[in-house]
Write a structure and sequence with these properties.
The protein has 226 residues and is mainly alpha-helical. The chain has helices spanning 2-16, 21-32, 36-49, 51-75, 80-86, 89-92, 113-136, 140-163, 169-187, 196-219.
Length: 226
């Protein structure tokens, strides 16, 4: 893994060596793609446009948020900003990296939550827009525009996470793939006909389930709070 991590550090160096004006762009992208925006921005907008799509965004966002935490407990995953010091790379080789206010995230980093949760929650919105574009136009380019924008957004989010040293490239790729797969798999199973009480109960069940799982793993001798 050290070779993979070192390659990721070199990739981050290449990103940070770009024009200074890109710094603000990447930091803005990583801030706007924070998973909480799924619930505070994407869900209300999607619900306003179509109730079924909005509920799907909320449900998939909820499940993917929970699953991302659980996956990080088992996959662990180093954070670039801390790894370059803990591994001794910074003392062995010249490392030209800059620290940003969002660089010092702690805890496991695999897979990227920004990529996974955003990718999963936006899937029903993208497919709805694709269906709408298909009804309004026969142009293949128009039909593919929503998914093209979706792919470019996730690419930008992934690069921004590497840029600010929050994730290694392989963690970003894993997050994007997991998010797209989760969105695709859960879209048809979204409980669109359920009452708000169901979602409150589901959120509580996920919370209690994660607490129970956390206790069991700790009891088994695995330090997931490293």
């Amino acid at each position: 893994m050290d070779a993979l991590h070192t390659a990721g550090i070199r990739f981050a160096e290449a990103l940070q060596s770009g024009p200074p004006w890109l710094d603000k762009f990447w930091i803005s992208v990583t801030s706007l793609a924070d998973p909480k925006c799924v619930f505070t921005v994407c869900f209300p907008l999607a619900y306003f446009l179509d109730r079924k799509v909005g509920v799907s965004v909320l449900w998939i966002g909820l499940v993917s948020e929970w699953l991302n935490v659980v996956l990080k407990w088992f996959l662990f995953g180093e954070r670039p900003f801390w790894w370059i010091h803990e591994s001794g790379l910074a003392s062995k080789e010249p490392v030209a990296l800059h620290q940003f206010p969002v660089s010092c995230e702690t805890g496991p980093g695999d897979p990227s939550g920004h990529c996974m949760i955003t990718g999963a929650a936006l899937w029903p919105l993208v497919t709805a827009l694709t269906a709408l574009a298909s009804r309004r136009s026969g142009s293949l380019a128009v039909k593919l525009t929503p998914f093209g924008a979706y792919a470019l957004l996730l690419l930008a989010v992934g690069l921004s996470r590497v840029f600010v040293l929050a994730h290694f490239p392989h963690q970003v790729v894993g997050g994007i793939l997991a998010g797209a797969a989760l969105g695709w798999g859960l879209q048809a199973r979204a409980p669109v006909a359920r009452t708000p009480g169901f979602f409150v109960a589901a959120a509580l069940a996920l919370l209690l389930g994660s607490l129970a799982l956390h206790s069991l793993v700790i009891a088994a001798g695995v330090d997931i709070d490293w």
